[in-house]
Amino acid sequence: MRIALVAILLSCSAAAAAEPHVFYHENVLGTGLELRVLAESSAVATQAEAAALAEIDRLADVLSTYDPDSELSRWFNSGEATVLTADLRDVLHASDRWRTATGGAFHPGAELFTQMWRRAEQVGVSPTDAERRQAVLLLQIAPWDGTRDDAARPNGCYPISLNAIAKGAIIEQACRRMLSVPGVTGAMVKIGGDLRVIGNLTATIDISPPSAALQPATILDRVTLQDRALATSSGAFRGVTVNGRRYSHLIDPRTGQPVDHIRSATVIAPHAADADALATACSVLSVTESLALVDSLADTACLLLDSDGKLHRSREWPTKNIVALADDAKPPAWNGGMELEVTFEINPAVAGGRYRRPYVAVWVEDADGRAVRTLVLWVQTSGPGPKWIPDLKRWYRSDRIRKAADGTDLIPTVSEATRKPGQYSVTWNGLDDAGRLIKPGDYTLFIEAAREHGTYQLIRKTVTCREQPVQNKLEGNTEIKSATIDYRKPPAPPAKGA
Fold it and tell me: Can you give the pLDDT at residue 387?
């Protein structure tokens, strides 16, 4: 199964006095981490990176639901009134505030229904109405008491999770910690679909719909942020399947039913914890309820994509029109209307834990070994990143030869940020890097991966690109788990209403 999250692509602008630096890490709070920092030097940027990572680790030890030794887990399992750290107490206060403001659409006790539906998936039977009603009644009881005092007591009537707000709280503190490093003038922390921009850094963000495609035809919108947080919630790729029917992992705590009326909810707010909680709530509330709630809040806005594909903006959303980035002009048909789809999967680190994502290049060469088309180039092009690009040995050599011939530099135009482990797909329509249609013949596909402090791997396969379809499964390696090639005519689009 192809897994893709709501795509958020970032480009940053900065004052000339500070240089932008970018760092990527994997397996951070269960997803990918991107750090951007404006710093007076690479050494200062590295200090800010270390400060952010340390702060993330520290707060994970406080707020993690999965770690039995975290402060949250130890407090909840004790069932006793306990003096809490300010970090945990602040998140509990914020949870109380959003539980009240959303009428229970945001609720730490939604974990009760998450566990109920996971059991339903195992036994193949959906929860009964009676079971859900009983659980809804339990959630009328506050999850804890006394958080405004020094000591707080969990009620213990049902399991809780702070996942819908804790990530935002961690992002907020990590971003502020980076900015506190001398010589840093701006910073951004992005974990999964949530991010915070602070200081002099300005981020231009493309918000894409949930899609498995690497090259979406359109985006939902484009916004520019400074000193703001953004969070996106979507139930498109996580959930459970019961009796052959798929249900979203997003559940309405007021009914116990998974929700599917919102494909994605994006919220801009002054602070990351608030954006995180509101993105979840806006996935649960009706469109009308979400817009009314967000419009009542200062400096807060939302963009909702409903299940019918319609966009809804709150009054303060920074843009009023969809950004039209799609190019509707159809390219010329290649070999009678053929295309080449390449699907590949990036492996997680063998040892687990945090690690740097690999650089990946996917490209095509002709029978003479000349580079024809670069389909994927995932690298870091700022800070210390460019010095590692030559580690993509074959692509780099082929590109140097191509550049010497036509004088163009592909890296600024085709490179994108490195990607987390998972499965990806890219389609080639037979056009070369200059937009010209190539001739029928034999072409070699390359998938190259190199990781700092990791391994170098190369996959190659020659494909006859004429009028006959070709399918190949390619052997994986340490960095690329598996890959397939499908040279065929594009599949017909699904019938409307199907």
Answer: 72
